[in-house]
Amino acid sequence: MHLYRLLLFVFLLPVVAKAQIPDTTHIPYKPDPKREFRGVWIATVENMDWPTNTKTPAAQQKQQLADLLAAHQKTGINAVMFQVRPAADAFYAKSREPWSRWLTGKQGQAPDPAFDPLDFAITEAHKRGMELHAWFNPYRATMDARYSLLSPNHITNTKPEWFMVYGGQKVFNPGLPEVREYIVQVILDVVDNYDIDGVHMDDYFYPYSIAGQKINDADTYAKYGGDFDNIKDWRRNNVDLLIKMLADSIHKHKPRIKFGISPFGIWANKSQNPEGSDTRGGDSYYELYADSRKWIKEGWLDYINPQLYWPIGYRLAAFENLLDWWSNNSYNRHLYIGQAIYRINERMVTNFKHADEVPNEIKLIRANPRVQGSVFFRSQSLLENRLGFTDSLKQTYYRHPALPPVMLWLDSVPPNVPRNLAIKKEIKSVRLTWEAPLPAADKEPVYGYVIYRFEGTEKVDLNDPKNILHIQYSTEPFYVDTTTEKGKTYSYIVTAIDRLKNESDRSPAIAVTAP
What we know:
The protein contains 13 helices and 17 strands. It is globular, with a radius of gyration of 24 Å. Helix 2 (58-75) packs parallel to helix 4. The protein folds into 2 domains: 3-397, Glycosidases (TIM Barrel, Alpha-Beta Barrel); 419-513, Immunoglobulin-like (Sandwich), CATH 2.60.40.10. It has helices at 3-8, 58-75, 101-104, 117-127, 155-158, 177-193, 218-224, 231-253, 292-297, 319-327, 357-367, 379-384, 389-397, and strands spanning 37-42, 79-85, 131-136, 163-166, 169-172, 198-201, 258-261, 303-304, 334-339, 373-376, 419-425, 430-435, 448-455, 468-472, 478-481, 489-497, 510-513.
């Protein structure tokens, strides 16, 4: 949820909120787990996070992106949601849609010299042990009414009958079967041609309500809505059809790709629906025609990432109430919580002026066994270290590396053990080499390795993340440890991981005294 969009529906909650400051001293501190999803959104729309300037040369844009990813790696982030299609445009070369104007300054104009931002981002993320989820906006086709800036081959120009105008923006008409087919094909272009880890969508389905505006789809309803008693149920079904089509298509093309959606934080209020949350705000089910609870209940999604952008104790939409509601409605799929770090130190809500607000949210997340992690909105806010939050991740909450949680419904077969681990002392380092494991039972190739290190007679415990020295998303069968201390004795263990981060049994431990 972008800040400017959040303000559009601030009617959900009072603008100035003296939120009750709850007693959070009872929230236990749970040490960082070995497996946790630690994501951040990198927004490209309107150059919010990257690139900072469309006039910046391509080489400098690449360096900026590499530096951004390196900074997030140091913070402990292990996944990025990289926005590749803000408005029926592309931040990738192998696309049926024109290059984004937020990359080069003009829609349809390729970077010069040529480079593929998505391919580059994937390589740089994987190099740093981070997953990359390609973030798509399915229905938005323009951000404003400046249609003269659109490329002649933009879909709004070649297929004008597919679009509605709402609030000055052109949006795809979700009721048209050919629109659903087109969006699926756009996303499959990326699934088929890029080494992404996931397909990610945010909260933009039917548009957020604007006073005086009307969704002009009555003719489409008359043509296609015969099985529905009212247009609202028909609209909701249109979105359901797209999500089901995407789930089936993505997993058929590449079974190991994760599919997740980040919906608005309130599915429905209890006053509207007995199955809803104890909240009093806007919602996705009635306002956006997005039945996000159904998508996870039906197993169409691998993860759901609701945007819980209100603080603990907020009387109309308390973070802790929504956290519990979503955990009770995750249906054995992964639940990652969208956290509003862009609101830290915000004057409008008292709680966000307290440095412990978001860390306390992390404590609540970790105290709930049905929640597997967080995603932070957004990259620039995380880099700004507001009220020292990023420091708290580095020093406390994300102090040690973490593997992403496994998705056993997609793959439950681990690799075999790496073979013939050997250690060689070098001048100021220790070099580990090994051989690749024998083929796994499902014949899936190895994707990477985890290197563990223990000091002296320290107990071998692979469940404690403090013992993880390095996570690598590559099949190179070696690692050089340059962080040893002269004369200290260390023991090393190596395990193998597959694409979905299932982990093998451990290799034998080998000890060495550092040079």
